[in-house]
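Dear Dr. L.,

I hope this message finds you well. Following up on our conversation about the binding site, I have prepared a predicted three-dimensional model of the protein together with coenzyme A. For your records, I am including the exact sequence and ligand specification that went into the calculation, followed by the structure tokens. Please feel free to forward this to your student if that is useful.
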Amino acid sequence: MSHVHVSRVNRGWVLRSHDHVSPDEFDAAISTIRSSGGGAVRWFVSHPTDVEKSCAKRHHLTPDVPLLLMRCDLPLDARHRVPDGFSTRPFRPGLDNDEWLEVNARAFAGHPEQGDWNHVVLAERLAAPWFDPHGFLIHEVEGRIAGFCWTQVHDDAGVHHHHDADGHHHDHTGVQHHDHAHDEHRPSEPAGEIYVIGVDPAHHGKGLGRALTIAGFAHLSGKGLRHGMLYVAGDNAPAIGLYTSLGMRVAHQDDVFSGVVA
Ligand SMILES: CC(C)(COP(=O)(O)OP(=O)(O)OC[C@H]1O[C@@H](n2cnc3c(N)ncnc32)[C@H](O)[C@@H]1OP(=O)(O)O)[C@@H](O)C(=O)NCCC(=O)NCCS
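The resulting structure of the complex is given below.
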């Protein structure tokens, strides 16, 4: 079995590897992508060796922003306080889809992999066996969605499978998902994840992101989970600042190489 796992994610491809990959294995993965039509590729690799770096280079994949796994113990030592004028409710599948897609697109305008989610992608996630509307928190103002925090429970001790109904992995820029077979900080218990979180840019800086993060982890801790986690791009200073201020710590980092396979 190859040490590099290939999956199709929305319109592109994701490669993941945990154990070190040989040039032959990497070339084979790239060939698979090429023979399936090519496209945008991102490779997530933990502590890449010089051999792995040169594999990336040979296929014109260039270093991209690393992906951080952040963790915390639950419950958080923080109180949920919704800013004045905002209220909290669960996501309503069907009713909220259009408006949520608009807010998501605005919040992730600089991150096409998350911001480009469309009705098909959202419907797939809402139909997934793990989906729970009570774990998908909306903060609204005057009946409009201002921000959201979508949580997910992992019953498998933090090892992510994240297969969609069709067997594909989830992926998006804000919070990416993949197996961390060598996550040395992996707890031996189920973990509660903040899967996607975003605030409409019109409402940034009002304390909604903090309120949503706290609400999401409070929901997870209410389900008995003692470990919280999420993935965040290494250059997302507002998000990392928020999570750090709530006591989250970086547990793991994946380097990312990205490019296009013809
Ligand atoms: C990250 C995000 C959710 C924060 O939401 P927000 O409502 O603006 O955040 P808050 O007003 O609650 O601010 C909370 C904390 O975030 C941090 N923060 C917010 N904006 C920041 C910025 N521009 N630079 C640095 N830190 C920032 C600070 O620690 C702040 O604490 P403070 O209020 O004590 O200063 C929001 O910026 C967002 O939606 N970003 C786009 C989507 C995204 O990146 N989601 C996270 C993916 S993992």
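In brief: The chain has seven helices and ten strands.

With kind regards,
A. P.
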